[in-house]
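Spend some time on this chain, tokens included, and walk me through the fold:

. . .
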Amino acid sequence: MIDPPAPAPAPAAVDGASHGAVVGQEIKAGFAYLVLKFYNGATEQEEVLPKGTQLHVYYIDDKYKSSDKRYQTAHSANPVEIAGDDGKISFKLEKETKVTFEIRFKDKLQRFLQVKRGGNKAKWLTQAELGEAVKADSLFFTKEMLFAVPNGTRLQNSTWKIENCANYDAGTKLFDVSATKQIKGDGGHLPAILQPEWQFLQFRHHDPKDGTDQAVPQGLWLFGYNLRASSKRPMARSNIYLQDKNCVLLPWIRNADKAATRQSKKVALRFKTSKWYTQKEGGPKIVEKKPEDVAAMTLTDRMKIFDLPPKWSATNWLVKYDSKWEKIADVINKATTKDKPIIFYLDSVTLTDTSRKSYSSSKLPWSAAVRFTVFDNKMKIFNPEPKKPYMTKGTLASNFFTPDVAGKHARVISRNGKFYDVTFSRSIKGSVVGARAGIKNDKSVHYWGTSSQRMASGCGNFELHYFANCLDSAGAEAAYLLIYWSGRFRKKNPPSSSTVVYTDLEYGGDRDLYHEHGFSGCIDRWEKKKYEFRPTPSSKGKNITVYPRFFFEGRTSSPRKCKIWIRKQTGDADEDRADMGLTEANFFRQEHKASTTDTKNAEGESWGYYTMAHELGHATGQDDEYLEGIDDNGDWDPALPEFSQSATGCQYAFDKASIMEGNYAPRGRHYWYFCRWLNNRSGVKALTAKKDDAGDKHSTVFQAVGGAGDKFKYFLKKKDSKNKKTDNFYKAAYTASNRKNGTHGKFDLRMYKVGHDETTELMVSGKTDFDAILVLRVKLQFFFRDTSSENWTKDSADRNNDERINYMKKFQKEINSKLNGKFWFECGDAKEDDYKKVYLYVVPRYKFGGTTPHEHKLIRVHKNAAAPVAKKPSFHTKGFKKKNIDIDQQQNMVTVMRYILGLKPCNHKEEAVLKSDGTPELKTDGTPKKKKVVEEITTISKDDLGFLADWIKSQRHDRAYTAKQV
């Protein structure tokens, strides 16, 4: 500690009286004898003011009023200084009138009283001396305790305690020496005790790692302002710390020239820390760390320290006082003690703009109607509302989140569809200063975008938010991808023609069930597989796992992504179908939860049919994968897909357990759009970049990983070796429309790139590692002809009893049985790494009657319940190649399939005519009689599919493919 300069010599003694009287000195008339003390709130003791304390004495005449200095006379020997260490001082009374005094420093600068610690005596530091001491690093706030004393502290306007003095008027705070002609105590020096208004304050935070409640240790240099006097010059400054109570003590000493009363709204507390941090290593302490060193830390190391705000103000804070949260203005002037301090939680959060300016109430209005969601650093919703678990419980009156509301580890706060990042930044201006800043879209840790690169058109009105600086469930550094969608429910009555009435009471109950169970149930369904995004083996970027989190938010007001009509089923198949559009959706009663009766086992688990989860798949960009049938209600099994099938995802229709086909289980590909977004967006790349040994910067390339033992690793390259886009699994990389095979085959071909997920395991039993799906799509228009003896049974009321429908269903089953799940194509060329194995999926499209110019084959089926045939197939005629064919109801369906594919449906040959006894019938020349016969081919094998292998070869650098068969 730098010693202060020696005090000026004391004035000469007056009439034998010393200005620095000693113990045992004779008390004489005409003199004042004082011992100057101050009350130390930290030690709860009265301690003497140190030597060098300067006392100015004034005499007041009878005309004196208030602070009017025209009627006061200064003591001629001013200033009088304490010369010793006992705080005693004496001076001659020059006038027999009223007397007052004040402590005033001749250098006009605020002095700092360094109070006793460890037996040391108190002493003074000037502002300049304090600055030099700090600059020279010889003063440590964690070891020394100081507080500021104003330049002037007058007896009348400051809180001095004078007791047991007969000539002291406690009302006017003046000594009347006209009669006594002296100022003294009982037999000696009169104690004059300066009593600061000690304010006990506590600064607390949660340990960044384990969340335990911690107090900020000694080291804060706290400033107190009376804004009535000045917003720039503090009225109080202190770093006094009560160790056993973890309190910072701020002594308020009234200035002689200012009003005595502090207005609560005019009191300001502030501190600056010069980027200091508390650190918990062998006990909490405050250390200084360079910002660049902190920035270079890993997140886990960073969480070992707690950052103090470099700039802090108590204005607009909520504080804990007497175990209750209160506004600082309501408690700032209330009595505090070491056991009842005002507690500031430095984990409190305020929402700010990108400049870290806290939003005012005019910029960001708050009311009980404004709800919010707080996500912790593991992206779990903190303290969810039971009836609306997508939001955090509680309301706010202002832009201030206490830890009770924001939790111990807030990472993201969502409010009205906007996202605010809470990390290690603090608000530096605005309505709240020094709180943890919830920065709107903080680009240093957060990148976001809308769904402008949806996988399927007409689907998905959602946002993706990548959040860095998070933790996984084990506490390791991780990142999260939040998939955000919001919807607001509305009642929609059935058509006016319906007799069904949807009451307001029913709607209110259904709406509440959707809010309470629907959104969280769908989140559980989409997160149940626990898919993650991890770096590909060849990625050179940051080695970090990104966890997808679905955030489906129910809204009761704007903004919202979608308006959801809740309707009541009418029994009309056309009306009673849920749907999801970009901005409107239709849900029905009871669709907020998964079915417990309609279930399907997949991947070792039972999955209930869940309509709402399927529709929210659309809301996040997924397409339908089922085949839209010519039956409106979709109850036929198998489905008979219509010509105008709109879904692009029907190449996956064979996976009946898929959530986008059968409303059951998510698949790895359903996470690919999100993964692709991570890989494609420059903002994400910047946040996942890492330099290699050569200094080159690489961003992380992610793949979707899931399944037991991380079995599935889904990844699609942006383009293949022929510059074809392959990163959208809904869109074909290679196509051929109206492809011909032979003289009579005609169909469409679509080849789709796929990744490894649950569906690729289902293509061919026992086979894996498929790289693509080749969809063979053929349009079939069926007409059914009655014969003279038999008619087709028709049932428009129950189409499942309609013979015509059942015939087409049987035809589709034969396709599934004989072709699907049986064949694939392999390339043996080592250079082919994009399409090594291609699965064949044959998907006819159906039209039932009517007219259309777009069918590939028109099939007329003639009624015939039993042999003999009523109508021979057209293709029995040698050389037949028309698209319109006639067949009998009993015709072998494999031969029909062969004709459709351009394969030879039958062999034409001659065979001997046999007599009744089985011997050949002879012609007149003795040779066997012959007859022409048609031998139908009733199987399809891999050897028949060379035309498809040749087509793939023509698309893939002329590399040879071989058809394979299970």
Observations:
- The longest strand covers residues 477-491.
